[in-house]
């Protein structure tokens, strides 16, 4: 089932390299440093997907002037532990079961501003900077 505000499966992170800055503010608009929930399509079948948490790391505007959030997918699956494209960030209130989470670094999701189902939490600055440092070191972000 395709959702009206489905987020595409992702793009290479280097392609969207930006200046990254921590700026969370739970004001109803998603900001870098916040974990939000949105519908994300599966990479292998874009007609399907699931609602999942995404760490907001920036914004971009497309050729039509539409603003999209730049987000990194989160997962609680432990098999990501040994994958260099995933970084363990610990647990947070974005997961009702308080499971540890991993953030995917090699694929950026473009999330339409109106595609956010809800703001989930703020990732603390220390953990956000660990993610930001990896984006700077490995993917050309500033």
TrEMBL record:
This protein's UniProt keywords: Toxin-antitoxin system
Domain of life: Bacteria
Gene3D superfamilies: 2.30.30.110
InterPro entries: PemK-like, Plasmid_toxin/cell-grow_inhib
GO molecular function: DNA binding
SUPFAM superfamilies xref list: Cell growth inhibitor/plasmid maintenance toxic component
One Pfam family in the UniProt entry: PemK_toxin
Family according to the record: Belongs to the PemK/MazF family.
Name of the protein in its database record: PemK-like protein
Lineage: Bacteria, Bacillati, Actinomycetota, Actinomycetes, Mycobacteriales
């Amino acid at each position: 089932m395709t959702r009206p505000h489905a987020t595409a499966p992702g793009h290479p992170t280097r392609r969207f390299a930006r200046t990254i800055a921590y700026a969370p503010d739970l004001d109803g608009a998603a900001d870098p440093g916040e974990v939000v929930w949105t519908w994300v399509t599966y990479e292998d079948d874009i007609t399907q997907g699931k609602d999942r948490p995404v760490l907001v790391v920036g914004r971009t505007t497309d050729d039509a002037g539409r603003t999209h959030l730049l987000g990194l997918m989160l997962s609680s699956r432990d098999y990501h532990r040994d994958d260099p494209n995933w970084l363990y960030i610990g647990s947070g209130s974005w997961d009702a079961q308080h499971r540890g989470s991993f953030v995917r670094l090699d694929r950026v999701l473009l999330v339409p501003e109106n595609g956010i189902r809800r703001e989930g939490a703020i990732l603390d600055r220390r953990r956000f900077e660990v993610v930001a440092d990896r984006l700077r070191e490995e993917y050309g972000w500033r």
